Amino acid sequence: MFVVPRTPSPCRALVVGLFLALVVTGCGASPQVAPTITGTASSPGSTPAAAAPTTTPSPSPLPLDELEARYDARVGVHAVDTGTGAAVVWRDDERFAYASTIKALAAGALLDLVGVDGLGRQVPVEADDLVVFSPVTETRVGGTMTLAEVAEAAVTRSDNTAANLLLEALGGPAALDAALAALGDDVTVVSRTEPDLNEAARGDERDTTTPRALAEDLRAYALGDMLDDDERAVLTAWLTGTRTGDALVRARLPADWVVGDKSGTAGYGTRNDVAVVWPPGGAPIVVAVMSDRADRDAEHDDALVAEAAAAAVAALGRG
């Protein structure tokens, strides 16, 4: 195993060889404690910043190449301990279709755009709006939904019509792309709406991102200062209320850890999950796991995502 620093960023590490290395860097933000989830989310509160860590490779390499071989899949991981700045990376600069994980970022961008007060705005739901997999919006055709209801349906139920209404409220895919660019993300390419964004055709950069960019974007919205405290509280409530991720990042973590996530599924066996994880009494961990397979009609495997996430958290010394 070799560990080589990426250039020129001080916040990156390149892993060369068959195993994943844990790289400790000095780029962690002030940690935040776990929210109390009792019907409505409390905004995570600040705790003192951790002391600046030293740079050192992990003594326990992570065999994600073995997981790839076992599941006949490609997997990308970016996991960061926000208290120490330690990061676990594997293929974190490779592109994957983001699928429905983009709904979490769209919700964050909406909160940034309209604030909590703007979430009460009513939007019509027409029959012509409906696309495949819309368990919430299909019951509201002919009526209206608030932006809060639209975003909640998109994040917690992965409702595709709600996602399109959310994008429309932002000004379309290009507007979300610009919002992510404002975060410093020059990697993610937001191009299409549901369900076309799930095509995941090889070599097509539309509707793709990298594990690193996905994790950093969610961290900016859920833990950073892009949103006010009340806006982060709403986003946290949506993420922790997600019903589609039980078999993914949270599946192999301790039951008393709070997890807020957004899953995604697309062509070529794409299965993703991006999450903020709050261990009791510790700084949050941000995890992005993205996976796909070679064949267009391949099935995805939730267990691959769950195993990769658990291995990454364990490599951070937090398992």
Q: How would you characterize the overall build of this protein?
A:
The protein is of the alpha+beta class. The chain has a single domain, classed as Beta-lactamase, CATH 3.40.710. The chain is built from eight helices and 14 strands. The chain has helices at 64-71, 102-114, 147-156, 160-170, 173-182, 211-222, 229-240, 302-315; strands at residues 2-4, 14-16, 22-24, 37-38, 40-41, 74-81, 86-90, 96-97, 122-124, 144-146, 208-209, 258-266, 270-278, 285-292. The strands form five sheets. A six-stranded antiparallel sheet has the order 3-7-6-14-13-12, sandwiched between helices. A two-stranded antiparallel sheet has the order 1-2. A hairpin with a 4-residue loop joins strand 6 (74-81) and strand 7. The longest helix is centred in the last third of the chain and has 14 residues, at 302-315.
Highlighted features:
two-stranded antiparallel sheet, 319 residues, Beta-lactam/transpept-like, Beta-lactamase, 6-stranded antiparallel beta sheet, single chain
Low-confidence stretches: 1-31, 35-61
Q: Can you give the helix content as a percent range? A: 25-40%
Based on Cα principal axes, name the global outline. globular
The domain count comes to 1
Counting DSSP E segments of at least 2 residues, the number of strands comes to: 14
Summarize the main sheet.
Answer: 6 strands, antiparallel
Average pLDDT, all residues: 85
Q: Give me the CATH superfamily.
A: DD-peptidase/beta-lactamase superfamily
Helical/strand content category: alpha+beta
Strand content: 15-25%
Might you state the CATH topology name? Answer: Beta-lactamase
SSE order, one letter for each helix or strand: EEEEEHEEEHEEHHHEHHEEEH
CATH architecture: 3-Layer(aba) Sandwich
Intertermini distance: 23 Å
Strand order of the largest sheet: 3-7-6-14-13-12
Q: Any idea of the CATH class?
A: Alpha Beta
Rg estimate, integer Å: 19 Å
The number of helical segments is: 8
Pfam families: Beta-lactamase2 (PF13354)
Region (Disordered): 38-62
InterPro entries: Beta-lactam/transpept-like, Beta-lactam_cat, Beta-lactam_class-A, Beta-lactam_class-A_AS
Domain Beta-lactamase class A catalytic: 76-290
